[in-house]
Every structure is written in C-alpha cells, then in structure tokens.
Amino acid sequence: MEGSSIRERKESQNGSNGHSVGLISGVCLIVGTMIGSGIFISPKSVLLYSGAVGPCLIIWTACGVLATLGALCYAELGTMITKSGGEYSYFMEAYGPIVAYLYSWTTVMVLKPSSLAIITLSLAEYASTPFYLGCTPPILVTKCLSAAAILIIVTVNCFSVRLARYVQNFLTASKLFIILVIVVAGAVMLAQGKTENLTNTFDGASSSFGAIGLAFYNGLWAYDGWNQLNFITEELKDPYRNLPRAIVIGIPLVTVCYVLVNVAYFTVMTATDLLLSPAVAITFGDRALYPLSWIVPLFVTFSTFGAANGSCFTAGRVAYVSSREGHMLEILSFISLRRYTPSPALIFNGLLAICYIIPADINSLINYFSFGQWTFYGLAVLAVIVMRYTRKEHHRPVKVPIVIPVLMVLVSCYLVLAPIIDKPAMEYLYCTIFIFSGLIFYYPFVYRKVKWAHTFIAPITVHLQLLMEVVPPEKIE
Ligand code: ARG
C-alpha cells in the first residue's frame, strides 16, 4: 500500500483476515494518489503543445480514458499474479529476469527520484510565486526550496511511519478541498455567462505528431498513480469485484475533476493568459476568488507536499522486492531497527532527486519521466497479451477483452516513439542509454555473481548498516 510499512503490512496480514480495504477506501486511494502536482502544473504544457483550448480539453479527457483502460489491464495482471512487487513480478513472469532487472534499475535510479523532483519543483513554484507579484520567481529560489522540501520529507519519513501517515490524511483532504473550490468558482463564473474563452476553441490547434505526444506526456503525468491499487490487491475486500469497480469509479471521477478544473481556468483566462501565467491556479485565484485568493497557493502547496510524501512511501518497495532476487543493492531494502522505516531507500531516493533538480526544469523532467514510464507501462500491458498465450493455465479472475491491451500497446508505442520521431532530441537517446546501461551491472553482479563484487560490496553494506542502524526486513518481527 502507498502508506504501509513492512510491519504494518504484517500486522494487517495477521489480523482478522487481512482484507481491510473496502470499495470506498480503494476509490479514495486511487483519487488520493493521482491528484497531486500535475493538475496545477501540466495545464500550461498541455495547452502549449496542443495549441488550442478544444484539443487541450480533449487530451485531458483522453488521458483519463487511457488511465482507466491501463488500470483495467493491470487489474488482470494483479489478480492473476498476486505476488507482491507489482510490475517487477509481472515482468519476471512474462519476460524473465533481464527485463525485470532493467525495470527495477530504471525505477530506482530514474523514475522514483525524478517524480519526487517534479513534485517538489511544482511545490516550490507555488510556494514562492505569491512572494514575487507579477513575475516568475528566480530559478535559484525554486530549486533551493524544492531541495529543502525533499530534505524535510525524507527526514519525516525516516523518522516515523505514523507521523508520515498522519500528515498524509490531512494533505489528501486539502487537495480535494482546493480542487472543489476551483471547480465551484469556475462553475459560478460560467453560470454568470463568462463563456467567451470557450468559443472558437479549435483555432490554432496543433497537428504535429510529436507535439500531441508531448501534450499527452504532460496530461498523463497528472494521472500517474492509476496503477496503485495493484499493490494492495491482497488487502482489498472481495478483490475480484472491488478492484475493477474501484478503477471504473475512481479514475473517471478524477477525469471529471481535471476537465472541470481546466474549464474553470479557461473561464477566467484566455489561452494566452494561461500560457503567460507563472502558476495557473494562483492566477485563477487572483481573478476568481479575490479577497480569499491566498488559499490557492497555500492549499496547492499542501497538495503537492502530500503527493511528494505519498511517493516516498513506495520508495523502498521496488528496492525490497528486487533485492530479494539479488537484483539490487541489498542495503536499499533494509529497514531501520528502531523506527521500522526504509531509511536507506528513502535517503538514496532523496539524494538522487536533488541531483535531478540541479540541471533540469519541470517540463523536461516530465518528458523524460513519461518517456521511461510509458516504456514500462507498454511492456506491462503487452505482458497481458503475451501471457494469454504463454501462461494459459493461470487463473484469471478478472479478464479484460483482448482489444483493451492491444489498444494500450499501440498507444504506448505512439507515446514513446512520437516525440522522438518528430524531434529527435539527444536527451531521449541518453535516457535509453541510461536504461540499458543497467546491463553493465547485470552481467557481473547478478548473472555471474562474481566473487570480487561480493568482497567489494559486503564491507560497505556492513558499515552503512552500522551507521544507519538498519537490518534486513525479515529480521524485524
Ligand atoms: N499524478 C501525480 C501528480 O500529479 C503524480 C504521481 C506520481 N506517481 C506515484 N506513483 N506516486 O502529482
């Protein structure tokens, strides 16, 4: 679960029957994970790449449909292969250890830390904009603020699972609150007849193959987290019914919210205003909520803080599952002896996130994140099709019509290839090289398990263990 430590999970498994999450909690988990920074930061880029208001709203809706279809394919995977570990276990089963290894390598080294970097950069932008009236805050300020946010979040999470959980409930509530405020304010203005920005909505629409792909990257970032329910299938009550149900309720709910928030933005801003705004929700607040406009930056900061905190919860999980197979440095899966938190994984993730913040901006980070992430989402939905042939014997309590994974595989190919074909940027090449560079370590450390590698790593692990007071998770009872 996004918020469960190994110990809590053990408790819940040993408890009454382990099925503690009902339909409503499942829906809340989906909604709570998906909403975060994206709806406040992506509208600008989606509009920029799609070129006009009409296509922009269509892309926001289409992203919701893709997330729902993707999640339904994941429901088949999650109920067929119930081993914990999410994608890692599906890749292991469908394609074998090399793909699974590359997945955990990319997740630990790139996807997890870059998403933390994107979320905290958005946080910093919203927290600093009110202090720089009428202009964009200096880059140095936002980068330092975002590094500070990472330090705080990592510290809180290393310190206590309970504290992190407690903050999380408050933060989830505050993100729903601010979305509701924006939607209601927008609806009131629409009712008052402010519809002039919503006419001629297709003028200037982009027809570039790659630009549309980039618009999707940014929209899909706001929807990322749609696969989270897969990680808690074991804790769901009546999972075979509730998993698909929670998906078809939760994701469309988020989609409706996102589209309405965008409509609200467009009722008070023209497309040009939106593109020029340093932080869209703040400009919205200034125009639509005036004496109360301060609530927007405050609550958006809470919301992004919640998203960053939530993404930290999962930092240890992939490392844990893959290090069990000898695919990742053992130390990353260790748990603090006294506090039961996965502190090595948290600290490693935070350090990498800070490294990513230094050279990059939000937009390029989102593009690389989505490029890498959709490569693996694509492979996961392909696994649904592959296993229909190679693993016929598996019981499939949830079986999606085959057209859904086929469509999703095609969409993922488009998403991964379109931006490269349209504008071949070196960065995508670097990203690909980086993903495959994991293989350099695979051969000696994992496949051959050479002796010198062990003699080299073992003392380092022991020293770090003593320094951080961490032990392998099995040792904690
Ligand atoms: N959709 C979220 C946002 O808009 C990002 C989710 C990051 N991914 C995750 N698995 N927690 O901020």
TrEMBL record:
Membrane topology label = Multi-pass membrane protein
Q: Which UniProt keywords apply?
A: Cell membrane, Disulfide bond, Membrane, Phosphoprotein, Transmembrane, Transmembrane helix, Transport
| Catalytic reaction(s) noted | L-cysteine(out) + L-arginine(in) = L-cysteine(in) + L-arginine(out); L-lysine(out) + L-arginine(in) = L-lysine(in) + L-arginine(out); L-histidine(out) + L-arginine(in) = L-histidine(in) + L-arginine(out); L-cystine(out) + L-arginine(in) = L-cystine(in) + L-arginine(out)
GO cellular component assignments: apical plasma membrane
| Residue ranges of the TM segments | 21-41, 47-77, 98-119, 139-164, 176-193, 205-226, 246-268, 294-320, 340-359, 371-390, 402-421, 427-446
**What Gene Ontology terms describe what this protein does at the molecular function level?**
L-amino acid transmembrane transporter activity
The answer to keyword Kinase applying to this record is: no
Q: Which Gene3D superfamilies match?
A: Amino acid/polyamine transporter I
Keyword Cell wall biogenesis/degradation in the entry? The reply is: no
What does the UniProt entry say about where the protein is found? Apical cell membrane
Assigned protein family: Belongs to the amino acid-polyamine-organocation (APC) superfamily.
- Name assigned to this protein: b(0,+)-type amino acid transporter 1
Q: Which organism is it from?
A: Mola mola
